[in-house]
Every structure is written in C-alpha cells, then in structure tokens.
Write a structure and sequence with these properties.
Two copies of one chain form a homodimer. Chain A has 415 residues and is of the alpha/beta class. Chain A has helices at residues 10-13, 21-30, 46-59, 77-84, 93-105, 114-117, 156-173, 193-200, 232-250, 262-272, 287-293, 311-318, 322-328, 333-346, 394-414; strands at residues 2-8, 35-42, 62-66, 89-91, 121-123, 127-129, 138-142, 148-152, 180-188, 211-217, 220-230, 254-257, 277-281, 302-307, 351-357, 372-379, 382-389. The first copy, chain A, is globular, with a radius of gyration of 26 Å. The two termini of chain A are 49 Å apart.
Chain lengths: 415, 415
C-alpha cells in the first residue's frame, strides 16, 4: 500500500516548528508494509490545502493530513477537503456532547466556549476517528472510487496516539501488509561509534544479508539492522542471525533492543532485588530523578533524592566532608561516592546513585574540562564509581551523565 | 519572492531522518522577504524527483532542492533535473581538480576513487554553487523564461553553509528583499486556547492587519502575529499596534515574547532581588530543578532541592506534617505549601517552590483526576499556592506543572 502525507500549518512552512509527525508515521507504517511515497507541507490557506490534497488524491488516492483541525478560524482542513469531495459541513451533536463532558470533567469554569464548537463541524458522510488524546476528532472521508483522506490533528501527542489507535488498524483492515521492511536495533552504551566499528571488523560490511546503520545519540550508539522486501519469516531469520553475530562481538555493551530504556531496566532490577533507590544530583540538577520518575509505577522503588547543586547542600544535606571537597574538588569520584552514600543513608534506602560534573559552557579546567563527570553508586554499603568525559553541549552532557549513572546502577545490581 | 523546496532522500520518506534543512531555510529566507509556499519530500528515484520539481516549476518557477548530490549511484538529482531542462551532462574538470586537491589535503590514501568523479558531472550550461563545507558542489539551472532550480546537498552543515554563502546572496541580487515577512510572538500561560479566543473576540479575526496564529504547547499558548508583503517600517508598525491591542485584552497572561523562557525570567527576577531558590518536587521528580539548572549561570541563584517522591521523604526531609497528609492528601495546596516552606527553611534560602500532583496514568480519583497538580511558593515566609488540572500524558502534565510553578514564582516576586 502506498500513501502520501500532507502536513498543514504556516508554522511548518515558516520553519518555527519541525515536522516530526511525518517521520513517526513513516516508521510505524513501514513495519506494516505501508510505504509513504510523497510528503507535502503547505500553509493554513484553504486553497493551498485543497490543491496539495487534490494532487495527492490523483496520484495515489490515499492521503493522510496532519494539522488544521483546531477550534480557531485558521483551522481550515475539514472544510477545504470536504469541498474537494463535494460534501457540505454539519454540526455533529455527539462531538459537541463529548467536548462539553471533557470541559466539565476538567473542572474548567463556565460553559464550553462557542469557539470550541468549530471542532464539532464535520463533513457530511464522514467517519469520525476517535481522539482519546485531545479534543479535536479526526475525520475519514472516502469517495465511491475508494480514494480516501484521513485527517489527523497536528499536535504530536494526538497524531501519534491516533495513528496507533485508529489509523493503522484501519489500513491493516484494508489489506496493507505483504512483503515488509523489518528492523531490529541493538542499543549499546559506554562505547564510541568508531570503537564499535573496529570491534565489528568485517561483520560491519555485510552482517548476514541485512543493512547496518550506526545511530549515535546521548544514550549511546544504536546499531540498526534492516531487511527489506523479503517474506516476513525470512526477514526475521536474517535479523536473528545478524543480531546474534553482533552480540558476539560487542556483547557487554549491548543493554537492550529497540525501545529499551536504561531507566526502565534499572527499575526492573530494583524491583527484582526488592530494593529502593534515591538520587543525589549536582550538575544534572534533577534530570536523573526526572528520568526515573518519568516511568509510570516508579514510585514503588524510587524514594526521592537531593539536588545538591551548591556545595553547601552537598555538605549539609548529604554529609559530604568539607575535606573531600577541598582535597579532590566537587567534581571527583571521591565526592560522588560520598554523595551516593549520603543520600542512601539519609533517605534510608538500599541504593544511592550520584552525579557530579562540569556541564559547561563555563567551569572547565585543564584537569577537568567541560564534559567531565563522575558517577557513583552505593548498594547497601558497597560503592563503585567512574569518571569520564563526553562531547556535546550542556544539555547533552547532562543527558549522557544520567545514562552513565543508570548504566552503573544496572551493572552494580547485576554483578 | 515565492519559492518551493523539494527535499530528496529515501531516509526522509522512511522517517529515519528528520528534515531540519527546510525549517532552517524558511526562517533565514523569511527575514529577507522570501516566502516558502510549499515543500515536498520525495525518495531517491529519478522519476519521483523529476515529477516533484516539474510541478513546482509550473507553480512558482523557483525551486530549491536538497539532497541527492553525493557520489553514489542512488544520487540522481542532477541528471533528473537536467533532463527537465533538456540539458545533457558533462564532466567538469575544475571540479575534478578540486576534489583531487581535497582528497590529498585530507591525507587520504591513494588516488581519488572513480566513484567520486560522479560529483564532477554537471548539467550543461549550469552555474556551479561553490561548497566550502563539503565535497559536492551545488548547481544552479535556469531556463529562458527565468524559471530556476538551485540544487544543494542534503547534509545539514553543507546545506546551511551554502544557503548563507551562495543561495541567499544570489536571491537578494535577483531582487528579493523589497517586502518582508516579519513576525512577533506573545507567549501566554495559564489560559486555554479557546478562552484566549473568547477574550480576544473581534480582535481575533483581524488584529490590525496582521495574521494571528494560536500555537498551544505545554508552556502555554503562543500568539504569533505575522505581517507579509509590506515594507519593513510598515510591518513593524502593524506588529506593534497588534501586539499592543492583544496585550490590552490578555495582558496578565502574557509573560514574554518570541523565545522567552519562564525559567530564565525567574532566574532574572531572583538575581534582581538577590534571592536564592530551592525546589521541592513530588510528581515532577526533578524536572523543575532540571529546568532551572539547564540555564548556564543558574548556580548563582539555584541552591538545590529535595525530590520528595515518597511521602516519607516529604515528612522526613521537608517537615510536612503527617496530619496534613492525612487530612488533605499528598496532592493538596496544604501539602504543597508545607513542602515549599520546608525546602526554603531546610536549605536556608529565600524562596522555596513546590509541586505535587497526579501525573498519571494511574492514581487519579474523582476529586483529584489525573492531570491535577498543586504548586506553591514561599518567599521569605509569605506563601501562595494554587491547584489546577491539565490535559496531556504523564510527561506533558509534568512539564505543565513546572511551567505553572515557575509562573507562580514570577508573580510572587513581581507582586
């Protein structure tokens, strides 16, 4: 199945917003054998929308739009596409009701504003695509020749949710599938891209009939294996052979596959050991705590922590010794260890983990340049730590430090 | 001047790469009065490239492509567009020479590979756009009717560099830049899009000759005012009139313009008052601390904080009273106030700010549904708090809660 995407919004054309919906859709669709053959981006004008959608309908007859479904006067997706299909617009009372219910449930003051009722205007003979992620419903319009347009909201959370809930199941039911593009990703951390390539050697060139891509990021380097245009059984067999071969070469750096998240792995390990954790953060200022608590259900094992941004807080709230700070500096394995032990003891948990570093742009020295950080873990009195240094801006250095700290916890719990 | 962009590459269509070139070009071009009216993304196939470029030539006659200029067999941009202009291809010896020189200067082994000479094949009667940022030169093709295509490499560093060095000066020389597109954004928080529209009333329809877009996000709703196709003095005058009119209607919700960041504003206010701040976070788990410390130089006023994810931590580390938790619950303005005061006193700072809420997906009750959160601030013993509720998933609820907390601090420091 071939489809086209039309992204709608002045903010996209003007470059104020980067379109991530299209890439999301393409990846999800590829796994089902649905291929995006063209994308267009147009502004909010009714004529622009209509002409882009019309051209796509002529070419492929299968069009997904994102954006322009909001409650304000510049949201013209529905009427301009309805006109292409020679359909009028009607007010859908069931949508008005659900908007009203939503307004009340949120405890917002007064009645549903008139402006919001715009969202309940839909083309005649249209199918409503339910939006469980926001207020604007999606629309499915189809003509007698089977050409269709699916209109989804542009807000990424809503677009993504509705793609999974409503759109992809509908396309699969229409017969998408067949030969596939299938991929599998091995996630590594604590090793550079070039070092990985060296370890892989010949295998890097042709890993058992699949293509290999290196995707470096702050979590580490992902190795993506892709197989195209073969039956799914053969694709899976090839991916398994290639993944096994890669693991043989770089095994200990692989922490998971596909969407694996180091924070989730650490929470699992803590649960398995019936242990609770607390964090002590200097340069990351709360980012490590944020990552752990980003996961629903983390409250079972995450107790809390101390953000010890200023050295006074390290001393007063974590019991770091003044002598340690003077002798080794705030950015040192010694300080990191005392922070980890301090937060473990003061919060009364099993595991303390800490980060202290120079995130930049200022604060670097020849011995401790910007990007240097130390992480430590204390598991019931046994501590480990290491110091490393990474590239990137302030944000990326902080992200990399949280990944290093979590990786250290994971190793400590496994070892 | 109106132009269209065509982005070329299978990796863009497959969603493995996000197209940032188009947004970069649009922003740079807008400042010169050049307007991007349509964008298309196509794969690497010669037919796909030709058809997208041909359509754009018919519509606007001014097309910029990115991608498909590399040395490999799947780089078909030049020959497919040359064919549209009825031009043959020729080997350009000056490009071969510069590729050879580059190869030597890099210290790479052996002679320039044959494959790389592909990059020296250019359409007949084409103008070479010099690439100082990589090896593939750009190409400018123009017909007798003045329709043109500028072909740039897809690598973002090269695309950006060549846009600035070669393309924009050329467009300005062709007469772009008489009239401009200029915009100004008012950032609001604490008010919904529809409520804003209601407050603006008639003004929302035609705010003094500028176009108005609502851009909702977790920080609040941005109101973007845009003026097109008038001289720059007139554009500025219209934007000032419109911004003043909007501020008159929604003034207290406007916290800044354009790139304003609430965390930066709070740090400024703290510096102006010579005050230091500490955070106490429950459901956000460190996100508020992370936001404040994301800004370089924040250590001057940010002392640290306590992540009180578990109620035990709220009691032991922040001095929240057990009775308060029992009587009002952890998610209550009462608990939030005690958290703010607790962190202020225990860390010995001037300002304590706190967040406690139900980020979801579980944990909601009829009285406190998912998305409910309470924020409080204590400025030298004077506390304020409020409770509200927001849409979104766990991540977005947490983001919105940090914005609400920072907004409360800002109001408290101003008031």
């Amino acid at each position: 199945m071939e489809v086209e995407l039309v992204s709608i919004g002045d903010e996209l054309l003007l470059g104020y917003t980067i379109d991530t919906n299209a890439a999301f859709f393409a990846r999800e669709a590829a796994a089902l054998g649905i291929r995006v053959v063209r994308r267009a981006t147009v502004g909010d004008g009714a004529d622009e929308i209509a002409s882009a959608v019309k051209e796509a309908l002529v070419r492929t007859g299968a069009v997904i739009t994102s954006g322009g479904l909001g409650p304000t006067a510049d949201d013209l997706t529905k009427p301009s596409i309805a006109a292409l299909f020679n359909r009028g617009m009607r007010l859908d009372e069931s949508i008005v009701e659900s908007l009203r219910a939503r307004w009340k449930a949120r405890g917002w003051p007064g009645e549903l504003p008139e402006a919001n009722k715009m969202q309940a205007m839909i083309p005649e003979d249209a199918t409503i695509l339910v939006n469980r992620h926001g207020s604007a419903p999606g629309i499915w319009l189809e003509d007698d020749a089977g050409r269709w347009v699916a209109m989804l909201p542009g807000v990424p959370r809503e677009f993504r949710g509705m793609t999974k809930d409503e759109l992809l199941p509908r396309l699969v039911a229409m017969g998408a599938g067949g030969t596939v593009v299938r991929s599998r990703t091995l996630r590594t951390t604590g090793i550079a891209e070039s070092a990985l390539a060296d370890k892989l050697g010949e295998l890097a060139k042709d890993p058992a009939g699949v293509s290999l891509a290196y995707l470096p990021g702050w979590e580490g380097v992902d190795l993506r294996l892709t197989v195209r245009d073969v039956p799914s059984v053969e694709a899976d067999a090839r991916l398994t052979r290639a993944a096994d071969a890669l693991r043989g070469k770089v095994g200990k750096h692989v922490y998971g596959e596909d969407e694996a998240d180091m924070a989730v792995l650490v929470l699992h390990a803590l649960r398995a050991h019936r242990m609770r954790i607390a964090v002590a953060e200097s340069c990351t200022g709360g980012m490590l705590g944020m990552r752990l608590t980003a996961i629903a259900g983390s409250s079972e094992v995450v107790h809390g922590g101390v953000i010890a941004y200023d050295n006074e807080v390290k001393v007063a709230q974590l019991g770091v010794r003044q002598e340690t700070l003077v002798a080794h500096g705030a950015v040192s394995e010694e300080t990191a260890r005392e922070m980890a032990t301090g937060v473990r003891e003061r919060l009364g948990v099993d595991v303390g983990v800490s980060i202290t570093g120079v995130a930049g742009p200022g604060g670097g020295t020849p011995e401790k340049p910007v990007g240097t950080y130390c992480v430590a873990v204390d598991v019931r009195g046994v501590t480990r730590s290491f110091r490393t240094s990474s590239v990137g801006d302030r944000h990326e250095v902080r992200q990399r430090a949280t990944q290093a700290a979590l990786s250290l916890v994971r190793v400590a719990l496994e070892g």
